[in-house]
Specification:
six-stranded antiparallel β-sheet, Immunoglobulin-like, 41% strand, disordered N terminus, mainly beta
Length: 654
């Protein structure tokens, strides 16, 4: 059965009584697009005994009466043979003295005056203005022909094409329960008076659902105020498993249907949830923090299965314990929580249409005696000096609090806690003393907020690299014997000593003399050195390659054979004024002929530097960079390694 919400006490008083006039006027373009404007007048009692005059004006004109004689309702005698039986019967009521200003009679008359144009014409409450100009704005007023008083008027209206009424606003169509579909829309009493609903079932064509137009009246709410009902129509001629589509149209006060709304589709299915489960009970295992929920069957025929939920007390987050639907024959389910405290649990019954119902809540407490998961795969990386980075893998639960790291030296008996503060990262850096050469052993445990401790992780052993250099050696003596330089030093006491390196220094360079590590505490330097003064240092190297600081320096002075030996004769230094060339020549005593000669020059700082390589000629031209005083000497080098120096001579270049 289709239900129409209709309360007799109101209906079109909506449009009439809301306006402080004796009648209501509606204006619209003619539906046949005949370049005419149709007027509909609704008086309070739906009668027109005094007659009416209709006036019109445009934007630029005065009021102009459209009818020559007053328009008045026809008498019964005028109707016979010209009008339909329905019109004649209704006109007998209108022409009678019966009160038609309220009650069911008024409702019926209003509907008939809207739907039956013939009746509206007979009463004189319908008028067609065919003298309008398309696009012009017009205003109308209705005047009582007997009293001359205005009883209704309209606002400006534009003549033109007829536009069908748009569908109602805010349409909603939804399944209300397992036996009906509900409809809602926005009631607009000045725009339309009724609604038609069309329905299509399972892909068939649309047909009118309601036998009569659907009329609305306001109802009283709990406060006693009159309001429009939320649900305005219910279709209860539906069957589960069917698909329905609906379209809605509004009916205007001229009896014309409006545009159809876009279709609403409803898959009409079971939406009634199954009965909830009963006698829910929870069995607790504190050692594993395991929960076993059990319940009684609700005996629903279409039950499909169950879902189990839980939450902590005072926490709105709901947690689904099962991943797949619990089968309907299973009346228990086990799961684990990861934190101690008070819990609420419940079971959700699910039927074949996926409707769900929730059981009563069962409350219980869990005392956490379960240790955290054991950290695994502990390993390490050696970072910069003395830093050991420990890393591991771990799966923590909600009540996890911290990791603890323990260490001992390989020769110690007990492990020591080395992580002073709580931390939750899966890595830890241990700073150890670089001088310690023993190996270290480490393990990690996890601890929760109730101080439950996990088992130990795997043990790892860490051997730090040797980064400690040997002690600085002590160079005892250097001797120049038989043209050879012999160094000796004290032996280092480092257990991992690998050997020594020997270095000699001049003013600008440091040179390692040996090519292989020296295993003894003595070394003979067979290198030929041109310098008079030789400075030596040594270093110690251990088996890891760590090298000590240099030892104490040791200076060796080599004496040159002087001019007193008579080796050099006639050293001459010459230059010309205005020239930066210095000509140097010398003669050498016959006999012990040297391997060659090296010329040295000193600037104003007095420091001699060689200005050529080993040469056999006894002449040399020096091109100086700038004027000034210079000193020169010549050194002869013998195959034996001996040296002989000339006297020093000075020259001024200007």
């Amino acid at each position: 059965m289709n239900k129409i919400y209709l309360i007799i006490s109101v209906f079109i008083s909506l449009a009439l009584n809301s306006i402080a006039q004796k009648a209501t006027l509606f204006v619209n373009n003619a539906v046949d697009n005949s370049n005419a404007i149709e007027l509909r007048i609704f008086t309070v009692d739906m009668k027109n005994k005094n007659g009416i005059n209709i006036y019109r004006k445009s934007n630029s004109s005065r009021w102009h009466k459209l009818n020559n004689t007053p328009i008045i309702q026809k008498h019964n005698a005028e109707l016979k043979g010209k009008y339909s039986k329905e019109t004649i019967d209704l006109m007998e009521i209108i022409n009678s003295d019966e009160n038609t200003s309220s009650g069911m009679i008024k409702i019926v008359l209003i509907l008939k005056l809207i739907q039956n144009k013939e009746l509206a014409d007979a009463v004189g409450l319908r008028f067609i203005d065919s003298t309008v100009v398309k696009g012009e704005n017009y205003s109308y007023k209705i005047v009582d022909a007997k009293t001359g008083k205005k009883i209704a008027s309209s606002s400006a209206f534009t003549s033109g094409k007829y536009n069908a009424l748009a569908p109602p606003d805010s349409i909603k169509v939804y399944q209300e329960n397992n036996s009906s579909i509900a409809f809602e829309w926005k009631a607009e009493k000045t725009r339309f008076y009724a609604i038609n609903i069309y329905r299509s079932s399972n892909g068939n064509g649309f047909s009118l659902l309601n036998d009569e137009p659907i009329l609305l009246s306001k109802i009283r709410n709990k406060k006693g105020d009159k309001v429009w009902p939320k649900t305005k129509y219910i279709d209860d001629s539906v069957r589960l498993g069917s698909t329905y589509r609906y379209k809605i149209e509004a009916l205007d006060y001229f009896g014309n249907p409006g545009e159809l709304s876009t279709p609403w589709s409803i898959d009409f299915k079971d939406i009634i949830p199954p009965p909830p489960t009963k006698r829910l009970f929870a069995k607790i295992d504190d050692k594993t923090m395991g929960i076993e929920l059990s319940w009684k069957n609700n005996k629903a025929k279409d039950i499909l299965g169950y879902n189990a939920y839980f939450s902590m007390e005072n926490d709105s987050a709901e947690i689904k314990a099962n991943t797949a639907l619990i089968q309907k024959d299973s009346l228990s389910f086990s799961f684990n929580v990861n934190k101690s405290g008070k819990y609420n649990a419940w079971v959700e019954a699910v039927d074949s249409a996926r409707n769900m119902s929730k059981s009563d809540i069962y409350s219980f407490s869990v005392l956490d005696k379960k240790p955290p998961e054991v950290p695994s795969n502990l390993y390490y990386e050696l970072k910069s000096a003395g830093k050991v980075k420990l890393m591991w893998q771990s799966e923590v639960s909600g009540d996890f609090m911290t990791y603890r790291v323990y260490r001992k030296e390989s020769n110690a008996r007990h492990y020591v806690l080395i992580s002073a503060n709580d931390f939750d990262s899966t890595s830890f850096i241990d700073q150890v003393d670089l001088s310690v050469k023993n190996a270290f052993q480490y393990y990690v445990i996890a601890m929760d907020t109730l101080f439950n401790k996990s088992e130990k992780s795997n043990l790892i052993t860490v051997k730090l690299p040797d980064v400690t250099a040997p002690g600085k050696p002590f160079l005892k003596n250097i001797e120049f014997v038989n043209d050879k330089i012999t160094l000796s030093w004290r032996a280092n006491k480092d257990e991992d000593l690998a050997g020594y390196n020997v270095f000699y220094f001049n003013k600008s360079d440091t040179t390692k003399v040996n090519t292989e590590l020296i295993q003894t505490t003595m070394f003979i330097d067979n290198t030929t050195h041109s310098e008079n003064d030789l400075q030596y240092k040594i270093s110690a190297v251990d088996s890891t390659g760590n090298e000590s600081d240099f030892s104490n320096p040791f200076l060796l002075k080599k004496a040159y054979k002087s001019m007193a030996d008579g080796a050099f004769t006639k050293l001459k230094i010459k230059t010309k004024k205005g020239s930066k060339k210095v000509n140097i020549s010398w003669k050498f005593k016959e006999g012990n002929i040297p391997k060659g000669f090296i010329i040295y020059r000193a600037n104003s700082d007095g420091k001699f530097k060689s200005i050529c390589g080993l040469q056999s000629e006894m002449v040399f031209v020096d091109n100086v960079a700038k004027i000034g005083a210079y000193k020169y000497k010549v050194v002869a080098l013998y195959s034996s390694g001996d040296k002989s120096a000339s006297q020093i001579k000075e020259v001024t270049v200007n």
